[in-house]
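User: Sequence recovery, please. Input:
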């Protein structure tokens, strides 16, 4: 029993869950008592990568049992032929139906071992050869069976080429269009072969001509693995013979390959199966309904008399492209879509890939409606392919490029899921698994190439992706399908196309605006009058309304856009940049619909708007260059006030630039921290230099050198948008000046810097905090170097040594700053580390901080600074280990928290998994804290608990507005919970 349990555990390494796995592997010669047989690792690894390893292994066992004599050949081929291994195992692990076929036809696996699959151009020849159409030696039943085997063989080739990359990385991944194109070519070949069998059966085909017109997905070259093939028959000559040919073909193909559906013909199932060209013309001109012309969009001759089929397409094309002129055309198409949706049972409507809300039909109906409306004048839109038509609609400007790209992506995703579902048993299904069917979700996810992410299993990731794509499709469907163009929300020249106020409010509500009446007021204010500015806004607003609808806060974004537009109304280039640079509008919409801080800064630093069109300039400006330009600009000013105003202005510009790049995902957390820290240092340098010049002018001499030492986040170059500048001021007398005179001079300079930078302003605060100095607020603001030395040598407590770990020269006299750093090194890196009492003291202080400083009512699991696994947890842990070991490990002598943690790992003091968890949590909490500040526009350490603010914070991390923001909170809590467990070990136990 124990041996069996060990074997099960061992086979589980390769994804097997079936108790029979070890037995079946032994029967194959791939497993023994010790585990995998030598040389079988690639085989077992390949099996583990299939969607269902148990199903794949069972398929191999059945193949071995069906033809034991051929097994050694297959075994050898699987070991040496990566193409066969990847394709055969992928098929066996994806489709029980194709496995049944391969077992019933044991030689068929060899078609996957060759240099390549049958080209689609050869499908017709293969199927015709199978039914021996030219020789006429098979009965209809025999021909049907032969056609079935040949069809399934080619279908297996297509599935193998489609799936093989899941198992073997070296195999190419077929594009979606290539897969559907091959499936369509196979269906066309089957129709041609079925018609050939029918001609043998009927025997007098020379008396009639028959054209087979493909409709639906076959007409659009977008067939599924399992799908009815919609056709219309056109006859010429003896209609009775043509009808017998058509009905026999339907029967042969239906029993051999797939159902052939002729219900789209005139009068449907009640009408004649075959009609002449004239009969079709009469019907379409007199009796056809709107939906029939919509169906004819995809009409394409595929078998039989192609000349006759060509004449049919030429006949109906003008009628198709005139259909939009029919009375109530748009309403008819919309009613048809609603009718289809109503037929879906309510309990599965959200899981129905094809007909449900946000399903494939939503895309197809929207695309076809736009094709029929705009294709009258634009031949580029007249493609039977949904994907090609979508691309043409985006290229032609009928649909926003982003909308077209998103619909293409989501449509392809749903079609791929549909393919994988149908392959399982080769049954016509469009039903996504229920979220309780975890095993089926896992298999489907693996078949779709979806892997686990953010700590969630693959099945949950697939479910989230399915919901995201369905929500996106439904939203875009509503936007494209149920509207006059959004230009009517603002103004259009033609009064007949304008929406009423009530209709406009409904439209805005459907787009996601919570206060459509308020949005209409903003639109009215921006577009009022006949000025050129109003005209440009009329052109911009439809696009902007669409873009804002995809942001976390469309209403707030529109209000911010109005504020910015009114504030910059006299800026000559503002509207021109928006009008002429689509990328600027797109990025501005994201920023305004996400952040309250950005519009506040933008009205005071509008020049940053022009950088939105160039991501390289926006995100990758050198921090050294920024600091140099800020210092140079401030130095040119005539006095302290002017220098500080200039520094503030350049800091505002830089903060806005960094915030924009951060929100747009163009900067990583370390780059954000470095940029903010660098500009703060440059502001301090400029203000200090100006204050020294002012004081020297007043007293007539410079009696002391001054250096500013950055502490805390400034010292660690880890500033956030909300951070104060923690500093120490140190001075040194010049010449014969006494210490008291030097301190008096330096103190007046330091106080001037603090007051000048801390003065009230519309920008985020510039508070200079010197409370970490010796004796805290009760001690002198400035000390001489010797005074610092005396204090730290005699009185320094362990918390002060800890605070000095991040001390770094940031402004003033560099030589003095270097001497101060040398002075404090023995204090912050104490020889021999900390004794037990000092370690207990650090832990005691941390526990007290956790208890006393946490705001009342705060959620410890989402408080970024003091919460579980948050910034304080990680930083105190790193600092305790620095205090204990930096004297013997030079790499630990860094002011950077992540660098200190990496040094712990390199020195063997902590496991890589532990330091990775801490760095991940620290980075996450830093970014989350920054995001919360940018979203709310004010300092905040607590993540929002719900609502649009939480959605906005989650969007900064790449979550879509369609995603559940609770997933981000769960991710945050999981990450910080893991880090807190490490803190418990390393800080309180280590």
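Assistant: Recovered sequence (990 residues):
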């Amino acid at each position: 029993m124990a041996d069996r349990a060990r074997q099960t555990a061992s086979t589980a390494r390769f994804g097997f869950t079936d108790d029979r796995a070890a037995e079946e592997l032994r029967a194959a010669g791939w497993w023994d008592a010790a585990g995998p047989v030598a040389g079988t690792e690639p085989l077992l690894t390949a099996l583990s990568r299939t969607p269902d390893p148990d199903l794949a292994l069972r398929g191999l066992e059945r193949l071995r049992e069906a033809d034991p004599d051929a097994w050694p050949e297959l075994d050898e081929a699987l070991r040496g032929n990566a193409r066969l291994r990847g394709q055969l195992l992928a098929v066996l692990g994806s489709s029980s139906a194709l496995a049944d076929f391969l077992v019933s036809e044991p030689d068929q696996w060899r078609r996957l071992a060759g240099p390549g699959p049958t080209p689609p151009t050869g499908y017709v020849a293969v199927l015709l050869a199978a039914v021996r159409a030219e020789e006429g030696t098979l009965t209809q039943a025999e021909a049907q069976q032969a056609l079935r085997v040949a069809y399934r063989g080619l279908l297996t080739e297509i599935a193998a080429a489609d799936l093989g990359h899941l198992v073997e990385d070296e195999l190419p991944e077929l594009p979606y269009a290539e897969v559907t194109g091959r499936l369509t070519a196979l269906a066309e070949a089957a129709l041609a072969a079925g018609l050939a069998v029918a001609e043998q059966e009927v025997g007098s085909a020379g008396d009639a001509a028959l054209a087979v017109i493909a409709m639906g997905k076959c007409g659009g070259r977008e067939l599924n693995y399992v799908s009815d093939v919609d056709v219309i028959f056109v006859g010429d000559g003896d209609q009775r013979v043509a009808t017998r040919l058509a009905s026999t073909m339907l029967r042969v193909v239906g029993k051999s390959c797939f159902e052939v559906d002729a219900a789209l013909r005139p009068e449907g199932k009640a009408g004649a199966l075959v009609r002449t060209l004239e009969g079709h013309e009469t019907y379409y001109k007199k009796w056809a309904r709107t939906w029939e012309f919509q169906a004819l969009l995809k009409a394409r001759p595929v078998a039989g008399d192609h000349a006759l089929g060509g004449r049919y397409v030429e006949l109906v094309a003008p009628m198709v492209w005139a259909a939009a002129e029919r009375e109530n055309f748009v309403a008819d198409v919309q009613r048809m879509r609603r009718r289809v949706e109503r037929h879906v049972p309510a309990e599965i409507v959200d899981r129905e890939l094809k007909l449900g809300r946000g399903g494939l039909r939503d895309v197809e109906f929207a695309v076809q409606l736009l094709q029929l409306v705009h294709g009258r004048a634009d031949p580029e839109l007249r493609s039977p392919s949904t994907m090609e038509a979508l691309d043409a609609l985006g290229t032609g400007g009928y649909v926003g490029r982003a909308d077209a790209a998103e619909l293409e992506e989501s449509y392809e995703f749903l079609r791929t899921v549909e393919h994988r579902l149908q392959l399982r048993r080769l049954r016509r299904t469009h039903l996504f698994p229920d979220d309780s069917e975890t095993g089926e979700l896992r298999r489907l996810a693996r078949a779709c190439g979806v892997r686990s992410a953010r700590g969630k299993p693959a099945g949950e990731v697939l479910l989230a992706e399915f919901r995201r794509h369905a929500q996106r499709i439904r939203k875009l469907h509503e936007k494209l399908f149920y509207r006059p163009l959004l230009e009517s929300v603002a103004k259009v020249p033609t009064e007949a196309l304008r929406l009423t106020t009530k209709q406009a409010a409904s439209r805005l509500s459907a787009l996601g605006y919570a206060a459509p009446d308020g949005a209409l007021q903003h639109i009215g204010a921006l577009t009022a009058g006949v000025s050129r500015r109003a005209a440009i806004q009329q052109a911009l607003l439809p696009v902007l309304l669409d873009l804002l609808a995809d942001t976390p806060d469309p209403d707030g974004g529109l209000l911010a856009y109005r504020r910015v537009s009114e504030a910059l109304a006299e800026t000559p280039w503002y509207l021109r940049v928006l009008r002429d640079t689509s990328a600027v509008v797109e990025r501005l919409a994201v920023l305004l619909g996400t952040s309250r801080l950005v519009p506040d800064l933008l009205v005071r630093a509008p020049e940053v708007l022009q950088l939105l069109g160039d991501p390289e300039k926006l995100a990758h400006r050198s921090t050294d260059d920024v600091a140099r330009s800020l210092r140079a600009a401030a130095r040119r000013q005539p006095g302290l006030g002017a220098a500080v105003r200039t520094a503030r202005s350049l800091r505002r510009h830089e903060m806005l630039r960094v915030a924009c790049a951060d929100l747009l995902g163009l900067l990583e957390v370390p780059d954000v921290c470095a940029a903010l820290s660098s500009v703060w240092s440059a502001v301090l340098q400029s203000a200090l230099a100006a204050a020294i010049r002012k004081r020297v002018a007043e007293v007539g001499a410079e009696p002391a050198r001054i250096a500013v030492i950055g502490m805390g986040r400034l010292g660690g170059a880890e500033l956030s948008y909300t951070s104060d500048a923690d500093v120490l001021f140190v001075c040194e007398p010049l010449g014969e000046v006494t210490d008291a005179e030097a301190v008096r001079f330096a103190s007046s300079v330091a106080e001037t810097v603090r007051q000048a930078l801390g003065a009230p302003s519309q920008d985020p605060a510039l508070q200079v905090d010197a409370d970490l100095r010796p004796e805290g607020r009760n001690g002198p603001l400035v000390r001489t170097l010797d005074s610092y030395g005396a204090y730290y040598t005699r009185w320094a407590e362990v918390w002060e040594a800890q605070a000095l770990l991040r001390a770094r020269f940031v402004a003033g006299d560099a030589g003095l700053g270097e001497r101060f750093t040398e002075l404090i090194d023995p204090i912050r890196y104490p020889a021999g580390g900390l004794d037990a009492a000092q370690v207990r003291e650090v832990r005691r202080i941390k526990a007290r901080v956790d208890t006393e400083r946490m705001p009342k009512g705060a959620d410890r699991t989402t408080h970024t600074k003091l919460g579980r696994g948050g910034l304080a947890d990680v930083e105190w842990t790193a600092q305790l280990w620095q205090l204990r070991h930096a004297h013997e490990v030079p790499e630990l002598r860094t002011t950077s928290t992540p660098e200190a943690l990496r040094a712990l790992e390199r020195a063997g003091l902590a496991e890589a998994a532990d330091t990775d968890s801490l760095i991940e949590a620290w980075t996450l909490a830093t970014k989350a804290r920054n995001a919360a500040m940018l979203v709310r526009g004010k300092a905040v350490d607590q993540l929002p608990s719900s609502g649009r603010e939480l959605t906005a914070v989650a969007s900064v991390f790449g979550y879509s507005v369609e995603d559940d923001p609770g997933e981000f909170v769960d991710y945050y809590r999981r990450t910080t919970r893991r880090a807190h467990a490490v803190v418990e070990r390393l800080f309180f136990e280590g």
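Residues 360 and 906 are 53 Å apart (CA to CA).
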